[in-house]
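Quick start: read one record
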Amino acid sequence: MSSLDQEQKPLTHRRQATRPETEHSAESGSEQGPVVEGTEALAQANELLRQEVRRRKQVEEALRQAIAEAESARRAEQERRREAERRRRIAENLSGVLIVLNAGRPLEEVLDYIAVQAGRLLDARGAGIYRLEEDGSLVVRATQGVLLAYVDGVDLPVGKEALMEAIARRQPVPVSNLVSAVTNRPVEAERRLHATAWLDIYRAALAVPIIVQGRPYGGMLLYYGQPRHFSAEELDVAATFGAQIALAIENARLREQVRQAATAAERERLARELHDAVTQTLFSASLIAEALPRIWERDPEQGRQGLEELRRLTQGAVAEMRTLLIELRPAALTEKPLSELLRHLTEAMAGRMRLPIFLTSKGDYLLNPDVQIALYRIAQEALNNVAQHARASRVTVEWTCRPEWARLVIADDGDGFHAEAVQPDHFGTRIMRERAAEIGAGLEIVGVPGRGTTVIVRWPEEQRE
């Protein structure tokens, strides 16, 4: 090995020795680059994660808000449905009460119905309707769910003070806690004993005044099993029931007045008919009977005519009395065949008009009560028209009846009339047409001037013989 080679080896070694440092430095630089890049990536990932967390929180919050809004909407819809159902119940109950009010039922039945409906609609455990007497006592008119001892005459154990206050103030008075109300007021020992038993059942009450024609009539008490608060709407509904009770009482009073007026008018009518028909007929008969012996002595033939006239008058008077008895007891119009009723009617009218009425009847069937009454009244009106307007000398009545159809023909030979000259409501024609229409019958009135009038009634109108 030459010296030159020897000198060069350390250099080569030195170069080799220095290479690791250089390589280490290069490697160290290459390692620092990924670390920086990794830190940035990590920071970006963290930022993305935070953004995702915020987004998810926002989504969760929006979801919670949507759920809350949906639940609120569901509760609001349920409340609307409950409110609609409650209003429907109120409307149905009040409508039902109005139907009962217009049905003409007895007052006791109407008040019982209202007490039941008020208790149901206002969720009361018991209800009572009372009339205030002049001495300040309260008389039970109707009850629903109230203790029997209360109804049997025991003075109001609880709630009387509230009811008297409601009557005085003319507006509903709620008692949210009956126990406190009774405890805080001086009450007689006997009444307190009854109140103690009542307070085991009834804990709250609502007093409603009943004002009829501006005057206190009494009130209604609604009892509840637990202390409670009464809403303004409940007070309004209770006041409405109080007004309906007042309306029922006033309607009953008016119906009684109408009934009394109708009874008085009917009595006056019967008295007039008794005077115009029976009294005059009997007076004529008495005159004939008084003169008949003298007439008989002078002219037996004229005497026999007088006897016939006397017989006809007395027969007419008897028939007239039977007719009046029928008027006093309207049910008699449906208890006998119309042929028999027409016989009594024609005999009575013949005695009243002093002219012959010839009746022919075919068929002794009892018809539907409404049909039979209407046909009798039409015959009665037609014969009255003959007596008042026709100046006839002869009248015929033809009655043909089967179970499913009937025909009535009344004809006279009187003055007659021009159809175009007669008003629709003249001579009682309107009444006869209304009665015929009510039973589905056809009515035909034919008048010939100077030759009389014929009234024809066919039931049913489309008659098949």
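The CA atoms of residues 169 and 197 lie 29 Å apart.
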